[in-house]
Structure formats: C-alpha cells, structure tokens
Amino acid sequence: MKISDTLCFRLVATLALVLACQISLVGASSRIDIVPESMRIINERYHYSPAVRAGNMLFIAGQVGRDADMNVVEGKEAQIVQAFENLKLVLNEASADFDDVVEIVTYHTDMRDLALVVEVKDRYFKNRYPTWTGVGVSALSTPGLEFEIKATAYLDR
After folding, report:
1. Residue 4 within any structural domain of the chain
2. What is the pTM for the complete model shown?
C-alpha cells in the first residue's frame, strides 16, 4: 500500500501539532517557587512563597513595607518604596523586571494616599504599564502596614 504525498504530509503535520501541544502542556504545568534569600523567613514562618512561576506566568504575593528583618518601615512614602523594592527583589529572583508585569493590585489603608502611590509607582514602571486595581482596606496583615502590592507577570522566556 502506497501513501500519497498529501496524506503523508497531513499525517506528519498532525503528529507535529500533537507533539507541540504536549511540549506546551509540559511547560505550562511546570511550577517553580521563587524565594529570594532575604525572604526565606516568610517562606518558613508563614508557609507561602513570595512568588510562584507556573509556565510563563509569575504570580507574586503581596509585598509590603517591611525590611529583610521583618520590621515595618516608618513613614508612608518609605513603606510604599519598600514594598516596590521588595517586588523588584522578587522579580529579579525570577529573572524578570517591571516591564514583564502585566497586572498589579494595590491595597491601601487610606485611599487619600493614591497620588503618592502613583508618584512612587512611576519610578518603577517606566516603559510598559500594567493593568492596575486599587483597593481600600481597613487593615493589612501586620499592625502599622499601610500599603501592599501584588503582581502578575508574563515571562516569554
């Protein structure tokens, strides 16, 4: 029995498509926990990862104005800057940067601070802007915290 060139081409194309889908699914199902050295205490004490990479997506837990010693930073602007610096640390650990961020969600104990948040945010997001949702809350996880930012990034590498 002889297979026609057209049928042979279709069979090879179909097999290639099936293989590509399987490779894609394997990549999409991979999971890597991202824990910068200075955030190991968070992972160990509170049992969560600062970020998780699943396939090409990077999901970053809320970052707050707390230093590496787990101390809440004093002052609104200083807290906001520290939260963005913590976000930057997690992004760097995942070989990513602010241009890779596609979404941020910020939590504010005082929505009147929004202009200050925009000012600080613009120091970090310079080339590409993510979607953004700001949420007013009555309190955050630790007394004294006034701001939190969580993010999602897309990594095409």
Report:
1. no
2. 0.81
